[in-house]
Amino acid sequence: MATTAQLFEEPFDADEYIERLAWRTPGGGSKGGAEAFDPKRLLDEFKCHIEELKQLDEKIQRKVEKLEQQCHREAKEFAHKVQDLQRSNQVAFQHFQELDEHISYVATKVCHLGDQLEGVNTPRQRAVEAQRLMTYFNEFLDGDLRSDVFNNPDKIKEAADIIQKLHLIAQELPFDRFADVKAKIASKYHDLERQLIQEFTAAQRRGEIGRMREVAAVLLHFKGYAHCVDVYIKQCQEGAYIRNDVFEDTAALCQKVNKQVGEVFSSPETVMAKLIQNIFENKLQAHVREKLDGTRHSDVEQYLRNLYDLYTRTTALATKLTEFNLGSDKHTFLSKLIKSIFSSYLESYIDIEREYLRTRGAMILQRYYDSKNHQKRSIGTGSIQELKERIRQRTNLPLGPSIDTHGETFLSPELVVNLLQETRHAFERCHKLSDPSDLPKNAFSIFLLLVEHLCVEHIDYALEIGLAAIPSSDAKNANLYFLDVVQQANSIFHLFDKQFNDQLMPLISSSPKLAECLHKKKEVIEQMEVKLDTGIDRTLNCMVGQMKHILTTEQKKTDFRPEDENNVMIQYTTACSKVCAYVSRQVDHVRKSMDGKNVDTVLTELGIRFHRLIHEHLQQFSYSSMGGMLAICDVAEYRRCAKDFRVPLVLQLFDTLHALCNLLVVAPDNLKQVCSGEHLTNLDRNLLHAFVQLRVDYRSARLGRHFS
């Protein structure tokens, strides 16, 4: 059986168990081992081993049954013990309840007895206290303070308590009979009060927080307690302002004192609030006056900067101070302190701001025009000369010579940046310094000054000068600078619009002033657009006039009726070459001067006028066969130039013109076929006929019959 037990090893595996049993049996291995494999012997061994396992199972089963019986017996015993314990616990709980009731009864009796004793003892204590006070009062009445409490400096706390009570009693006594004793008590009262304050001051200088707390507790019932707090506040500030930054020093001082007042005074929030009030009404107010009063009339720009900086730093300091316990409504308290310092300055702020911006803007403008040696012209005064100028601008009539600006646009990016920078600072100051109810109104007034200086006095003036400088359409070799004015005016207005959105809109977005601002901005834009459109229209007329001048001077009648039809070597005429070069330069100029959809709009208009000019120009000549071919080459070159416009309509117009020019060279029999082509089928028959009439063989070949 010992051998069988050895075969039961953990973890148990039945297959492994059989293998080990077979291996232990002589002749039972798979290879037979030293002996040959003997199945009969192995079978006998298995039968024998099965019998052993049965015996082992029976033995284990008997042991299990014995253990189960023992377990049941012990469970019954344990259950009996638990029942006994429960009964004992119930008895103990009943005893505890009885004891608790007895204790409550005794406690009630003790409390009742205590109340009775207190009822007897309190009048006795009061009587003792009254007798003690009467004894001390008699000493004051006799004028001889014999008690040690009044003569021993170490008993100043007890003396203070006595004298404070005597002082209250003396106030109730009639003056005529007790005037002398009342004066003596009052004198001693003030003397002790002074000694306590001196003791508090000395303890504060020594840094003895415990002694300060004791003295402050005694002084709490004296009239001089407020003076004690004042002394503490004054002494706290000694040596605290050693740097040049009063705001940083104040924040550091309050942080330091806030930790101390809670350990010294019974109402630290009151002391802390009084300290801050003292600092605001003395240190900060003196600092603000020193910074502002000296520059208010002498240097307005510095005054506004200082006002903004001081107000900003003061409000930031107040925000830090809200971390401390200053009472129930500390935000209102701090706001009142700030208002007491800055109210006189804030009331007149916006008037000073507007006057400064008005003066500063005028100075920036004048300084720029002085640098250009330019005397500003008066625009729109109603004089005859200006009436002529306005008529000339709108009709292109030669009412007098135009102004020569020598290529100067009279628009300055540096000037614009300066004006916008000044206005940005003004908006920032306005946001910080204006009362919330006045903020939209004040911001709008600043915006109007920006419109006046930037839009009217600078951009609008430059547009007027630019319009006056545009030459008439028949001027030769005219320099067209108005597009440069347009380019710079657009760039400037983008900056103006950005400031409008970034700086002004947040200040007025939720007020009725928003509608006024948007209306004013729209009005300014419309006024500028009218002048820009007028100037661009007249500039395009000048461009067309210059093209017309080139064609008039360079195009010869013999170009399209050469004497030797067989010896034409040029690809296109000189006039065409020069016109295309000029147009290409102007297209580039337009692209550089415009942005967005304005480029396509202006180029479309220029392309239409360019096409109209070429169309009318071609109708002034008669064409031989070779001349017609040359005209087609010219139009092809014009069409190549028109591609630079990148406008489908313009290209379509020149495609049609090119198709029309084919009528100048096509064989008479093919005219009808060509006229019904893609580009010509929708054109007026009279227009087609007019082009055919330009052929030199029109009469000889009887081409008119094709249109009859």
TrEMBL record:
Keyword list (alphabetical) reads: Coiled coil, Exocytosis, Transport
Matching Pfam families? Sec10_HB (PF07393), Sec10_N (PF20667)
- Domain Exocyst complex component Sec10-like alpha-helical bundle, residue spans: 158-706
Q: Does the keyword Zinc-finger apply?
A: no
Exocyst complex component Sec10 N-terminal domain spans which residues?
39-148
Residues in coiled coil: 43-77
Q: Which domain of life is it from?
A: Eukaryota
Kindly give the PANTHER family that the UniProt entry links to this protein: EXOCYST COMPLEX COMPONENT 5, SEC10
Family note: Belongs to the SEC10 family.
What protein name applies here?
Exocyst complex component 5
Organism name: Ilyodon furcidens (goldbreast splitfin)
